[in-house]
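Q: Predict the bound structure with beta-D-glucopyranose.
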Amino acid sequence: MNDLRNDDNALETIRQVEATGAKVHFIQADISRVDSLPAMVKEAVDTFGSLDILVNNAGVEINAPFWEVTEKQYDIVMDVNLKGMFFLTQAFVKYVKESGRTGVVVNNSSVHEELPFPNFTAYCASKGGMQMVMRNLAVELAPLGIRINNVAPGAIKTPINAELLSKPELLATLKNNISLQRLGEPEDVAAVIAFLASDDAKYVTGSTYYVDGGLTFHYTEQ
Ligand code: BGC
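A: Predicted complex:
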């Protein structure tokens, strides 16, 4: 498990994983620093003996009108969401290739790899990029025995939505756009990631699985 900071959030996640009986090795590293990524894969392999699955889960977004977005804001979003995923996947693929194993990659993308999101243009660009990286790699990596898919969450109760969650009017409008009329729980997304990472999904590659309560194709005239 990797996080940018070794803080209370990271400790709480470690606690929850360990409570399931699983072993956790925590690596504090910045996903947007490409030079730190091969070491992340190596440390995981050194700890567990091998590595089978990579879940690219880190993501950030910046809410600003297009004409106000700074180069720094654009770079943060693209470097974490797209560049980090690109080069960590590359480090994972090199390991899988060199070790003669097979592998699975699951990317935590967003409904906004497909759906417009005004004031989040850099975020949408990064997620649209994740969609095409995933589709390309499904073709390029299949001969190496590597599957790759995206999960596209809608509105989920996670810290990325902290501001939204604190504003009842915004929340009410959003819920009206979700067919199931509720925000998603992290577990709703985790279940689909676990499926895609498992052998139950052995014939699935190059796909995006929406976990959005029906948000993407919700339409009503009332
Ligand atoms: C974004 C959230 C947004 C949700 C639904 C997610 O990808 O991170 O900010 O609420 O999509 O639009």
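A: The mean pLDDT is 97.
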